[in-house]
Design a protein that fits this description.
This protein is an alpha/beta fold. It contains ten helices and eight strands. An eight-stranded parallel sheet has the order 1-2-3-4-5-6-7-8. α6 packs parallel to α7.
Length: about 300
């Protein structure tokens, strides 16, 4: 690879801004998170990622209080300016609002915003549950609001489990002008034969929509470990379905820092991605989807 690596999924934060890092610990898909209950500033993130060749990154919303969605984007933009590191932003917006456009207009004042995420994942296991109900991708308000992202040229970071993928594919079909970025390669959490089959079938539905790409990130979430063999399996399956031009790498730091170093994570992903696919997976796809050339990220 002749250009730097793009990390298409990371977070930074001040603990005081995130309600979930201040209150009592509650179930999260990534397990106990006591080590995260502190500040994780841009300086620490760069100390983690820069030695591994990362030169640009995409910040993904980290669940600040919902009414502070603009503050969150501004906080990240300020960090990017201060440290001189190109960062694109996937911000939060409430897609269940009657009309999301006023929120999008406020976010558009920040030139680094390139997309929106509102997490839709719901699971029968309450430990993995986030959204209020499993079928939000089929909600007509959500569909109408996601379509408005296309007016800004923004992506939608799509977070669902395998049983929700049919609805997610319908959402992608109703919003052809929006690029959908599947989080964490579809969050494979059931490694039984039937679980893998259901995940693969859902991934096939999503891959059939040309406006869906898959983010190779968060692959240690349900193992609570950096497992090179598991990463290789998910990457191989995902690349076969989407192709490298529709796959992109994300570290999910500092979540993955609960169980691994950035170097070990990077090594596992580099080993999993064939050399011919690396330019796309570790740079080109993210640069295209998140328009990283605009305003230097």
């Amino acid at each position: 690879m002749t250009t730097g690596i793009v990390d298409a999924h990371f977070h930074i934060w001040r603990q005081a801004d995130l309600p979930w890092l201040l209150g009592p610990m509650v179930p999260r898909i990534f397990g106990p998170y006591e080590p995260l209950r502190r500040d994780y500033p841009i300086e620490e993130y760069l100390a983690d990622c820069r030695p591994e060749g990362v030169t640009e990154a995409v910040y993904v919303q980290a669940n600040w209080a919902a009414d502070r969605f603009v503050d969150e984007a501004d906080f990240v933009a300020e960090a990017s300016d201060r440290i001189g590191f190109p960062i694109a932003i996937v911000a939060y917006a409430d897609l269940l609002a009657a009309d999301v456009r006023p929120q999008l207009d406020r976010l558009a004042a920040n030139p680094r915003v390139r997309g929106v995420r509102m997490q839709l994942h719901w699971h029968e296991n309450p430990l993995y549950r986030f959204a209020a109900r499993p079928d939000l991708a089929r909600d007509k308000r959500v569909q109408a609001n996601v379509r408005h992202l296309g007016e800004h040229g923004w992506a939608f970071d799509l977070q669902v489990f395998a049983p929700q993928m049919a609805g997610a594919a319908e959402l992608a079909e109703t919003c052809p002008e929006v690029t959908f970025v599947l989080q964490h390669a579809g969050m494979l959490e059931d490694l039984s034969e039937s679980g893998i089959a259901a995940w693969r079938a859902g991934m096939q539905l999503l891959a059939a929509r040309p406006n869906v790409v898959s983010k190779l990130s968060g692959l240690g979430t349900f193992l609570r470990a950096n497992d090179p063999a598991h990463i290789a399996f998910v990457v191989r399956e995902t690349l076969a379905l989407f192709g490298p031009e529709r796959c992109l790498f994300g570290s999910n730091f500092p979540i993955e820092k609960l169980w691994t170093s950035y170097r070990e994570l990077m090594d596992a992903h580099l080993a999993a991605v064939p050399e011919a696919a690396r330019a796309d997976v570790f740079g080109n796809t993210a640069r295209r989807v998140y328009r990283l050339s605009d305003n230097n990220g």
